[in-house]
Amino acid sequence: MDRLSIALILALAAASVSAAARPKCVLTGFWINDLGSNMTINSVNKKGEFSGLYHTAVSATKDEIKVSPLQGSQHRKNEQNQPTFGFTVNWSFSDSTTVFTGQCFVDEDGKEILRTTWLLRQEVDKLKDDWKATSIGSDVFTRFQ
Ligand SMILES: *[C@@H]1O[C@H](CO)[C@@H](O)[C@H](O)[C@H]1NC(C)=O
Ligand SMILES: *[C@@H]1O[C@H](CO)[C@@H](O)[C@H](O)[C@H]1NC(C)=O
């Protein structure tokens, strides 16, 4: 065998090992985002349901921030390594509700990362104010070490 074929075989072997050994992104644990908000996600059950607690660093209201419960579900089809998920935060210190949707990835360094998009619904007094009641944003979470 010449050098090129050996190099090719080694490269292919490395690629198949890294695909097989690609770690799974697991939602359970303690996560922190770019703003300093953090959340604890409890164990995900067989159906993909989970609960947790969200501690936001930022708020649209002036009320004192309190830890708030979250309820979500993770996609379980084929036991994906990088599952999609969604959860709702029931803010305990305001009348607002936030929904997050995202995907749990493992980056090239083997680090887990949650890429999410959220919608925040604030309560408004009148139907006329409905147009300004919803905000959208995105957050990136990494596992807190
Ligand atoms: C979690 O977030 C809250 C709100 O920003 C902050 O007060 C608290 O220190 C954070 N906890 C950790 C461990 O970073
Ligand atoms: C939602 O928040 C309210 C107010 O804090 C609380 O009474 C209720 O139990 C919460 N519901 C869930 C599903 O966490």
From TrEMBL:
Disulfide bonds join 25-104. Keywords: Biotin, Disulfide bond, Glycoprotein, Secreted, Signal. Residues 1-19 form the signal peptide. It is found in: Secreted. SUPFAM superfamilies: Avidin/streptavidin (SSF50876). GO terms for molecular function: biotin binding. InterPro entries: Avidin, Avidin-like_sf, Avidin/str, Avidin/Streptavidin-rel. Gene3D superfamilies: Avidin-like (2.40.128.30). One of its GO terms (cellular component) is extracellular region. Homotetramer. Forms a strong non-covalent specific complex with biotin. Belongs to the avidin/streptavidin family. This is Avidin. It comes from Apteryx mantelli (North Island brown kiwi). The lineage of its organism: Eukaryota, Metazoa, Chordata, Craniata, Vertebrata.
